[in-house]
Write a structure and sequence with these properties.
single chain, alpha/beta, Rossmann fold, 2 domains, 8-stranded mixed beta sheet, 14 helices
Length: about 375
């Protein structure tokens, strides 16, 4: 029987919002029934309950119910944390990302003496392009936590470059391997392809992404325009974001609007079905903390194409678990797509190796066990 541990956890966003940190917290928590989490997060909307109970998780949403809550959180979150700590006597504080939530966590640690503070770095931006103010705040936080985890070696190296005395362990984000790897029955897959307007002989390239600059979907469209004359093909873009209209306009300019399918955001539970309707996954991101969308595609049995940026190199070994591409070179990306679509042996090799890697290293069950080991070791020091 594992020991019971109580954790005071700060995060700038949590359910119903879905992102890397949110998925990590929820998936780890539900696999650690002997760890009790008080999760503090900004409220953002009065439609969201101020309190919610989920098995071993209590969610406390703090604030006045609008976007100002993120800025108020470093102060309001501390008052709530102190009240909860007096009642629950948490063993440690854990905060996700060196941002507003970390401000609240640092204040809480100042008032709660002798409690360890763990920071998890999940940031996916290019640190070289961040503002000086943001850089200084992040560095201030990294220099004042007791322990850290990072979702990739890239972020681990960054943290150590800021604070070379900080112990930083790589604990990546994961994938529900069973959910994504379970083969969807042919009838369900054919129905979805038909509903999306995908012909039986179409090769399908898929990208799952928010439509923002860093994910570089514009270059995917340019590459796909090069692929169209070579294969009966469709491009499936799963996601949404501020660049949606710009991307749709690009499909008109490239005369591929009848071959590009914008699905909008889809429920996470049906994402595996969309992935298994495709033949290859591509996203030439300009920066990535890790790249969970790639891991999900690999688990679903897709060969992946991605750039050598951020944490992608942790799991993408060129020619073995995927193919590297040059992020802004659409001809290079088109060539990599063609290589996979015309070479069944290469495709099978990438799929097999990719799924084995996810099963052994990136399944949430493996990740949760690593986090529990860290928690146990931390409170004994």
């Amino acid at each position: 029987m594992k020991e019971n541990i109580r954790v005071l956890l700060f995060t700038t966003a949590f359910r119903p919002f879905i992102g890397g940190s949110e998925l990590a917290i929820e998936n780890i928590a539900k696999r650690l029934p002997n760890v009790f989490f008080d999760i503090l997060t900004p409220r953002y909307s009065l439609k969201l309950p101020a309190f919610e109970r989920l098995d071993n998780v209590h969610i406390w949403r703090i604030g006045i119910g609008n976007n100002k809550d993120k800025w108020l959180f470093p102060i309001l979150g501390v008052f709530k944390a102190m009240k909860l700590y007096r009642r629950e006597r948490h063993a440690l504080i854990h905060v996700y990302q060196a941002s507003h939530a970390a401000g609240a966590a640092l204040f809480a640690k100042f008032f709660i003496q002798n409690i360890p503070l763990i920071l998890t770095l999940q940031e996916g931006e290019d640190f070289k392009k961040q503002s000086r103010c943001k850089k200084d705040i992040r560095n201030f936080i990294i220099r004042r936590v007791d322990y850290a985890t990072a979702i990739s070696e890239y972020l681990q190296h960054f943290a150590v470059s800021v604070n070379d005395k900080l112990a930083v362990q790589v604990i990546p984000n994961g994938v529900d391997f069973k959910l994504f790897s379970t083969v969807i029955d042919d009838d369900k897959r054919h129905k979805l392809r038909s509903r999306l307007g995908i012909a039986p002989d179409d090769k399908v390239i898929i990208s799952v992404s928010r439509f923002v600059k860093k994910n570089n979907i514009e270059t995917v469209l340019k590459a796909f325009a090069e692929v169209v004359p070579r294969f009966h093909s469709k491009l499936l873009l799963v996601g949404d974001g501020p660049l949606r209209k710009e991307l749709k306009d690009m499909t008109e300019r490239f005369h591929i609007s009848d071959k590009v399918i914008f699905t909008g955001s889809v429920d996470y539970s049906v994402l595996p079905t969309y992935l298994q309707c495709a033949d290859v996954f591509v996203r030439p991101s300009l920066s990535e903390g890790l790249g969970t969308a790639f891991l999900e595609a690999m688990a679903a049995g897709l060969p992946i194409i991605g750039p050598s940026v951020g944490g992608i190199g942790d799991f993408l070994q060129d020619g073995e678990t995927g193919l590297f591409c040059v992020p802004l070179d659409y001809e290079n990306i088109a060539s990599k797509i063609s290589d996979i679509l015309k070479d069944d042996n290469l495709r099978s090799k990438l799929i097999h190796n990719g799924q084995e890697l996810i099963r052994s290293k990136y399944d949430w069950n493996v990740i949760a066990e690593k986090m529990h080991t860290l928690y146990s070791a931390t409170i004994r020091l």
